[in-house]
């Protein structure tokens, strides 16, 4: 403290020469600045968590919040998320992210470069064996990216889907996006099914978000919406998140 040395990058420690004591931040932990998806909720019925063992890393369904579907103990997440929903989530990760994919110069393994949150989501998708991020981006038709801003607290992307409609993907602050949502997805093996988001469902989701926050976790919400066309009649092309929600379906 007397020498006024403050280091935020571990690689710069050599500039301190011989040190006898190392003072850490309030968490008492030195991290790699690398986030990992540890748990989450799909809809209101499929709650999952990361499980480590000596051989593998996998995501298992560890609890049921509502009785829409039954989960055997220890079932993996992919068991309950059919291909359509897996593609929907992987598209959201890839298209709303500014992170890029590359190869580690040391071991040649696939790595992601970008913000800690976005790279965590892309690694999560890769661990589950979902579509490759670059293939998703290459296949996107008429991709239009909406960058993150502190005003809307979300990033997004427009693409044209198979039926010709325009789909908006959003990823951002949970408390902001949850207020704007009107439906939630229900895991289905053959299609993306949604259900009206009533007050009970919204309360359950909020309580879970509060639980994650109390554990020191950072939460994100993933949303989507389909439009028959975009921009809609008499609607400016550049609009805020709140204005998106005022448009009629």
Structure description:
The chain is an alpha+beta fold and 249 residues long. It has a single domain (10-246), classed as 3-Layer(aba) Sandwich (Calcium-transporting ATPase, cytoplasmic domain N), CATH 3.40.1110. 26% of the residues lie in helices and 27% in strands. The chain contains seven helices and eleven strands. The strands form four sheets. The protein has a four-stranded antiparallel β-sheet. Helix 2 runs antiparallel to helix 3 and helix 2 (83-95) packs across helix 4.
List the helices and strands and how they pair.
Elements: E1 39-42, E2 46-52, E3 57-63, H1 77-80, H2 83-95, E4 100-103, E5 110-113, H3 116-127, H4 133-139, E6 141-149, E7 154-160, E8 166-173, H5 174-180, E9 183-186, E10 193-196, H6 199-214, E11 220-227, H7 241-246
Antiparallel strand pairs: 1-2, 2-3, 4-5, 6-7, 7-8, 8-11, 9-10
Helix pairs in contact: 2-3, 2-4
In short:
The chain is of the alpha+beta class and 249 residues long. It has helices at 77-80, 83-95, 116-127, 133-139, 174-180, 199-214, 241-246; strands at residues 39-42, 46-52, 57-63, 100-103, 110-113, 141-149, 154-160, 166-173, 183-186, 193-196, 220-227.
Q: What is the architecture at the second tier of CATH?
A: 3-Layer(aba) Sandwich
Number of strands: 11
Distance between the termini: 59 Å
Radius of gyration from CA coordinates? 21 Å
Shape field? globular
Helix content: 25-40%
- Which spans of ≥5 residues are poorly predicted at pLDDT below 50? 64-69, 237-249
Structural class, please?
Answer: alpha+beta
């Amino acid at each position: 403290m007397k020498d006024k040395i403050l280091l935020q990058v571990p690689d710069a420690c050599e500039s301190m020469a011989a040190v006898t004591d190392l003072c850490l931040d309030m968490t008492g932990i030195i991290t790699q600045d690398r986030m990992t998806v540890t748990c989450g909720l799909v809809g209101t019925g499929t709650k999952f968590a990361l499980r480590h063992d000596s051989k593998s890393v996998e995501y298992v369904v560890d609890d049921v919040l509502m009785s829409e579907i039954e989960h055997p103990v220890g079932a993996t997440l992919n068991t309950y998320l059919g291909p359509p929903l897996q593609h929907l989530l992987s598209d959201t990760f890839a298209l709303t992210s500014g992170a890029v994919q590359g190869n580690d110069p040391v071991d040649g393994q696939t790595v992601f470069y970008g913000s800690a949150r976005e790279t965590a989501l892309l690694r999560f998708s890769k661990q589950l064996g979902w579509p490759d991020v670059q293939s998703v981006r290459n296949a996107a038709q008429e991709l239009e990216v909406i960058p993150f801003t502190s005003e809307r607290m979300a990033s997004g992307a427009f693409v044209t889907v198979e039926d010709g409609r325009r789909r908006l993907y959003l990823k951002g602050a949970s408390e902001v996006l949850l207020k704007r949502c009107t439906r939630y997805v229900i895991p289905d093996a053959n299609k993306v099914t949604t259900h009206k988001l009533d007050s009970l469902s919204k309360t359950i989701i909020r309580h879970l978000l509060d639980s994650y926050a109390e554990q020191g976790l950072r939460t994100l919400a993933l949303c989507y919406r389909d439009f028959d066309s975009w921009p809609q009649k008499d609607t400016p092309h550049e609009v805020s998140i709140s204005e998106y929600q005022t448009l009629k379906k």
